[in-house]
Amino acid sequence: MNIDDRIERRLGYDIGAGVLVDLDAVSPVSHVDSPVGRGPAFERLLDVFEPAFSGRLPPSTYVHGPKGSGKSAIVSALFARLAAHSGPRRAIQTSTRAVEPTLPGFVYVDARRATTRFRLYHAALDAVSDDSVPEHGVSTDELAETLSSAMRSGPDLVVAIDHVNEPETPAATTVVEWLDNVDGGIIPVCLGRHSPDELEWEPAEEVGFEPYRRHVLVELLTSRCSTGLGRDAVSHDQIREISEWAEGDAHDALAAITGAAVTAEREGASTVRPRDLDAGIEGITKPGVALGRVLSLSESRQRLLYELVSLPESDRASVSAATETIASRPAVDLSASTVRRVLYELADAGLLDRVTVAHSDGKGRPPSRLVPRFPTLVFRELFDRPR
After folding, report:
1. Does one domain contain both 317 and 267?
2. Is-above-0.85 flag for pTM?
3. Which of 61-70, 224-233, 363-372 is predicted with the least confidence, judged by mean pLDDT?
4. Whether residues 306 and 380 fall in one domain
5. Closest Cα partner for 376 from 278, 289, 302, 284?
6. Where does the Orc1-like AAA ATPase domain lie (predicted)?
7. Nearest CA among 165, 163, 155 for reference residue 187
8. E strands along the chain, which residues?
9. Which of 208, 242, 272 is the last residue of a domain?
C-alpha cells in the first residue's frame, strides 16, 4: 500500500466500500510487487545471481520449498525488477572508457501455463521480444530459432520456470533439456516443492524456502488485508488466529481470510464475524492443493469443478449423483459419462479426493463421493468474476 492509499483510508474514502475492497490484494493466487517478510530470501537469491551484476551469467539454480512459502512471490517479483535493469548487448568499448555491465535478460515463466516446449519458447520469446509472437502457423523449431536470433542481438537469458514436477507440469529435467536445445546462453532457474535429492537434474546452486514464521505471516496478512479489505473489517486477533492455524502456509492463510471476507460480504456484514472466519477456515482442505493449479486448467474443466463445488451436499453424496446433476446443467454441454471421466481424471491428478461413503444400503462395492482439495469459496468467487 503506498502513502496516498494510506492517507485516503484515513480520510475515509473507503467507508461504505464493504468488507471485500480488492479481491486481488488478498487472493492467494495474486502476488504483490514488494512481498513482505522475505528479506533474507531475497538476499540469498541475489547472492546466487551476483555474477549477473558483472555482466556474466549466474549458475543454474533450483529454488525449493513447501506450498505457501513464498517461492513464486519472491522469484517473480525479483525477476521483474532484474528484467528492468537488463538491456541490449553493448558494443565492445576501449579500456579507457568505463561502461556499466549489461545484465542478462531475466524471464519468469509459469510451467502451469507453459506445459509444452512450444509454450515455454513462446513465453520466453514473448518476454524478450518487442513484436507479438504468433500463437499459430509457426512450428516449435521455428520458435526456437527465433529465440536464438533474439539472443544473438540481445542479452543472454536467465529463465525461471515455476511449478515444475507437478502432475500437470513438466519435470525440471524436461524443461532444462528444452532450454538446452536453444542455441545461445540460457540459464535455467527451476522452482518446485520436491527435495533436490528427488530430482534427476543437478543444478549448480540450491535455495531452500521454509514455511513462514508466525509473526512474519501476521505481518504479511496485515499488509495484504490493509489493501484488500475495508478498514477494520478484520481484527488483529483474527489475523493472528489465521496465522496460527495456517502453520506457515501463506497460500492457505490468504485463502482462509479471503473466504471469510467473501462469506461476510455475501451476508451483508460490515466486518468479518467469528462464523465468517470459521467458514473461511472450513473451506480449506489440509493438506490441500494450491488454487493456482485449479485456475490453470482449461475453461471446461474449471466449469466442471465450479458446478461440482456449487452442488448441495445431497447431490454430492455419490459420484453418480454428482455427474448426473452436473451433466443436466445448461452451462455444461457434456454427457454424464464424459463428466464422470473428467472428474475421475481430476481426482487422479490430486485435485479431488474420492471418499468411500460410510453407509450404503445396496449390495456390492460401496459408492464414493468427490471431495475438493482446493479452497472452494475463493475458487467460486474468482470464477464468478469477469475475466
Report:
1. no
2. yes
3. 363-372
4. yes
5. 284
6. 35-166
7. 155
8. 61-64, 105-110, 157-162, 186-192, 205-208, 352-356, 368-372
9. 208
- Which letter does DSSP use for residue 103 in this model? B
CB atoms within 10 A of CB 387: 7
Percent of the chain with pLDDT over 90: 67
The answer to the question of residue 121 being in a domain is: yes
Place of cell 523449431: 141
Residue 280 pLDDT exceeds 90: yes
Q: Over the stretch 210-229, which tens digit does the pLDDT of each residue have?
A: 999 999 999 999 999 999 99
Verify that 204 and 231 share a domain, yes or no: no
Pairing label, strands 186-192, 157-162: parallel
Domain that holds residue 380: 291-384
160 SS3 class: strand
| Contact residues for 337 (Cβ-Cβ < 8 A; gap 6+) | none
Backbone angles phi, psi at 206, to 5 degrees: -135, 140
Alpha carbon separation from 175 to 67, 103, 129, 163 (Å, rounded): 21, 23, 21, 11
Residue that finishes a domain, picked among 171, 190, 208:
208
Residue 218's pLDDT is what? Answer: 96
Decide if 56 is inside a domain.
yes
Per DSSP, what are the bridge partners of residue 355? 369
